Amino acid sequence: DTPSFIADAAIHGVRSGHTRYTPPAGLPELRQAIAGHLSTRADREINWQGVVVSAGVKQALFNTFFSLCGPGDEVLVAAPYWTTYPDLVMLARAEPVTVFGAEANSFKVVPSDLERVVSENTKGLVLNTPCNPTGAIYSLAELKELSSWARGHGIWIVSDEIYRNVYFGEDGGAAPGVLDLPESDVDNVILVDGASKSYAMTGWRVGFSYSSVEVAQKFTALQSQITSNTATPSQVAALEAFRNVEEASSAIAEMGIAFRRRRDLVITLMDQVLPGVPYIRPEGSFYLYFRVDGLFEADENDATAWCSRLLEEQGVALVPGAAFGDDRWVRLSFAAADTLIREAFERIAVMVKTGAAV
Prior knowledge:
By secondary structure, the chain is of the alpha/beta class. It has helices spanning 4-15, 28-42, 57-68, 84-91, 111-115, 140-153, 213-226, 232-243, 245-273, 303-314, 338-354; strands at 51-54, 74-79, 95-100, 122-128, 156-160, 189-194, 207-210, 279-280, 287-291, 319-320, 329-333. The protein is globular and about 60 Å long.
C-alpha cells in the first residue's frame, strides 16, 4: 500500500481545496521537487522546467513518441520489452524495430546489436533499466557506450527507469541510470520515471519526463490538448513523497528488503522445482523471466498456450512472452507474499510432472 504519510497529504490537500486545475505540465512546486530529487541523483543542477508531470509513465511515453516521431520514422525497441513500447510507437505512426541482445548478456543490447538494424529513418532507442520483464540492469559503462553510439547516429535515447529503486545491488542504493552520466553524454536523452513503483503509488497515476526545456515545451503543448494536468490530489500526494526524501527513503528501503528476499526465494525455487530451465537472474524490478518451450506438451506451440493450461489446471497466472517479444518465455511477478510464491511454484511443479519433461 501507499505509505500513510503520502496518502494523508492527499487527504489534507483535498480538504484544503487542492482540487482545481494546475498548469498542464504540473504543479511548479512538484516539478521543482522532482528536479531537486534528480539533481541530488545527478550531482548537478537539473532545470525544473525540463520536468513534465504526466498521468503515469505511459503518458510520458505517449508525449515522447507523438512529439518526436511520425510517419516514416523508426524506433529501436530493446527486447524483451514492456508491451506498451511498440504499441505507442505505432500509435505515433512510426515503426517499432525490435532488437534482441544476447541471452548470455541477459538480453541487454550493445552497439553491435543496434548497428545491424539502424537506418537513416531511425529516430530513437527505447531502453528499460531495470527491465520489465527480465530484471536486467544496464551498468553505467553500458549506458555510456549506448549514449555515445546514439549521439553518433543523431538519435534519441528514451530511458524508462520506473523500477530504478527496486534494485538488488550490493551498495543498497538505486540502479544506475542515465543521469549518472556526465551532462555532455545526455543531451540526446529523455528520462521517464514516476512514483508508481518507488512509492507504491500505482493507482495515483503520477509519472514524469525530463528532457531539454525545448523538448519539454513540446510535451506540454501536446499534453495540454490530451489530458491537461495530472489529477491535482495525486500531484499533492507525489509532492509529499518527493519533498520528504528521508521518510520516503525509509519506505523504499523496507520495500527493497522485501523484494530482495523474494528475489532470492524465486531463484532458490527455480533451481529446486525447475532445474535446467533457463532463466534470467533479476538484478532489479520484481519479475522473473524464464523459458518454457522445453515444457510444452505435444499440442502446444507457444508460451501463451502453456500459460493458459497452467491457469486452467493450476490457477497460476503468468504472463506469456508474446507480450514481450518472444513467446518461448514467461514472466512471473514476485510482488506477492512468500507463501503465495511458494504455492505458485508447487502448482507449477505439479503441472510439469504431468506434462513434458524438463
